[in-house]
């Protein structure tokens, strides 16, 4: 059996034994930490195992972003109404825009029998900790604020104002991320391949642990 199919059998086998979905993965890390690229690589390597929880946001799409794939792009009014109707697991205001995970987004992935992967900020983490989701919490840390600034500038998606706002948020997120107990693992992304291997190892070993507990 290839390592990929072994991994898949292991996870889905664990899921059947538990008679409920496997624990989701929640990734958090400052904008520019490389979290989206790590998630993308995980999906490329294990396309049938993981499913992405597509968030809602009121920010404008960036070049290459597709509605319904990267985000559900929406308006403040529409999102506000859905929040009032209790349709969201968590919501946040980040750099002047609203973001949120709808309950539907998570259920869609779970109903497809996949492990749900969420990408949220620290505000989202705090709310998810109050919910029944019970995920693994993974923090992706940039090597430094200076490096983060360099990456955000190279990305050319921000104005000077939004870039400065993102850096200010990043400082508080890193502080929260590094605090013992807030995350199950903190992965420093100074080298992409190394960070990806660390992420993969964490996911595989935790799902193995789940199997041992239930068998
Ligand atoms: P970006 O605008 O760069 O795509 O995302 C900005 C921040 O919002 C990132 O830290 C990202 O993790 C976070 N984010 C994306 N989707 C959600 C969501 O559904 N909920 C929360 N709380 N944060 C989100």
From TrEMBL:
<dbReference type="InterPro" id="IPR008144">
    <property type="entry name" value="Guanylate_kin-like_dom"/>
</dbReference>
<dbReference type="GO" id="GO:0005524">
    <property type="term" value="F:ATP binding"/>
</dbReference>
<keyword id="KW-0808">Transferase</keyword>
<keyword id="KW-0547">Nucleotide-binding</keyword>
<protein>
    <recommendedName>
        <fullName>guanylate kinase</fullName>
        <ecNumber>2.7.4.8</ecNumber>
    </recommendedName>
</protein>
<dbReference type="Pfam" id="PF00625">
    <property type="entry name" value="Guanylate_kin"/>
</dbReference>
<keyword id="KW-0418">Kinase</keyword>
<dbReference type="GO" id="GO:0005829">
    <property type="term" value="C:cytosol"/>
</dbReference>
<feature type="domain" description="Guanylate kinase-like">
    <location>
        <begin position="22"/>
        <end position="204"/>
    </location>
</feature>
<comment type="similarity">
    <text>Belongs to the guanylate kinase family.</text>
</comment>
<dbReference type="InterPro" id="IPR020590">
    <property type="entry name" value="Guanylate_kinase_CS"/>
</dbReference>
<dbReference type="InterPro" id="IPR017665">
    <property type="entry name" value="Guanylate_kinase"/>
</dbReference>
<dbReference type="InterPro" id="IPR027417">
    <property type="entry name" value="P-loop_NTPase"/>
</dbReference>
<keyword id="KW-0067">ATP-binding</keyword>
<dbReference type="GO" id="GO:0004385">
    <property type="term" value="F:GMP kinase activity"/>
</dbReference>
<dbReference type="InterPro" id="IPR008145">
    <property type="entry name" value="GK/Ca_channel_bsu"/>
</dbReference>
